Amino acid sequence: MSGNKFNNKYRIPSARWVDWDYGNEGAYYITICTKDREHYFGEIVNAEMHYSELGLIAVHEWIKSATLRPDMLLDMECFQVMPNHIHGIVVIGRGCTGNGAGNKFGPQTKNLASIMRGFKSAVTMQARQLQIPFEWQTRYHDRVIRDDEEFRKIAAYIEQNPLNWGKDRMNKANH
Questions:
Q1: β-bridge mates for residue 169, sequence order
Q2: How far apart are CA 58 and CA 64, in angstroms?
Q3: Helix (H, G, I), strand (E, B) or coil at 118
Q4: Which of 68, 72, 123, 165 has its CB 3.0 to 4.6 Å from that of 44, i.e. a possible disulfide?
């Protein structure tokens, strides 16, 4: 890790695709995890997700995200809240040009990072209001979806996630 320090602290390299502007039209596969993979959102029983109060809040806030940003022409209908993570596809629609910031440092609005930041913040705020102990993992994972075939495979994976929970690497029982 030598040479990878800022202000004398180790930095974690960005997982973002350097040459891609995350504010432009595109489809993104997202995974957001809870801290330490804690089961805050509910449990899988007989291959079905049974939501906790916070799990229902996460579902509501995910759906609400698109309505809060009508100018981005978002489609966020393909998602699954799991006990300790959320998988989703975020489509930033045709005609949205982002904020021109690309991957540069500084204020970021109208891009994938701003959507994820807003979602995570809304869930956290409601958890605090209800005095539900809760924390997110600091980052989220994203992948730019390259074509229709990849989109279909990812959407099927998301839909089948509760069915496959027993062998999912995110399932703490498997570690």
A1: none
A2: 10
A3: helix
A4: 165
